[in-house]
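Lab notebook: predicted structure, single chain.

Context: the supervisor wants predicted structures on file for every construct in the current expression panel, including those that have not yet been purified. This is the next one on the list. No modifications to the sequence; it matches the entry in the shared construct table.
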Amino acid sequence: MVRCNLDNVTCSIPQTICVSGTRCQQPACYPMPLANIQICPPSTQSIILVASSTRVPNTTAAWNATTTSVARATNSTASARVTTPITTTWSPTGNMNIFRFKHTESVLHNGKVLVAGGATTSYDQSSAELYDPSTGNWTITGSMHDARFGHTASVLTNGKVLVTGGASTSPNTNYLNSAELYDPVTGIWTTTGSMNNARYEHTASVLTNRKVAELYDPSTEIWTTTGSMNNGQSEHTASVLASGKVLVAGGSNAELYDSSTENWTTTGNLNNGRSRHAASILTNGKVLVTGGVGDSNTAELYDPSTGIWTTAGSMRNERYDHTSSVLPNGKVLVAGGWPYSYLGNAEIY
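Prediction complete. Output recorded below exactly as produced.
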């Protein structure tokens, strides 16, 4: 196995990607068809970083969609599109069973994508469904114990998905501190320890070592509070970089958390201020940010090696409160959201 380049992000061997944070002990270059979590599984320890909250592939990418379909409150067709950094094009894929926004989207160890919760025109959702990239189809899976939107979802190293916080409007608006776990093997949700604070529109990141903000320890199911960011954030994104640092981006500001020192430092500002956007880490280590309030159809890329953001073209559809996930083949699935009405569509980059 060949080690990644010194930046721990890129590989000098063609048709390979750098896989880091695994049991391989060091970042290693994998052939694209083999680079999945089953080949070199992650380490057995994880810590969930919850940062802030509301308490109580290339820079000239062209985002082209061949078709789009919009799910509205009166005539819903929950559609989706997929895009690939290699071809920088958007293509349609299967429709979700339920159109939703303010939901979460998680890539499971088996390659399927779990979408959970969110809101519709009628009520909050406790429902969840699975997307199969091999078929482009969505299937219903077990429902959460609590209906919620504006929550977070994190894939733990044991393969389970931890959902935290959010809000519910039944019967009245209620901000949640509850948490629950989804087991992909059984399709069943179970409750786990609650956070110290109710949180909404927050972020959560899976760390492999130290702690900050509010942390969940899967081995004890206990939450603990710790340090704060330089700038208060809400409706932002948090991404764990290949270096292990956490990039938090919202408004026009961005900062990095170093788990080895427990310090936050500012980094380059976004080109366009935005909130309620989505962020995904591409296979080349860069972070793709899409949509959001402020610039709801634009996208930009953050380069960890330079700390600079560059524009990355625009999506065909305006959207915010959507989700984005990097699929095992390197493509990015963007689903749902809200521009002027609820969206059930999805696209692939």
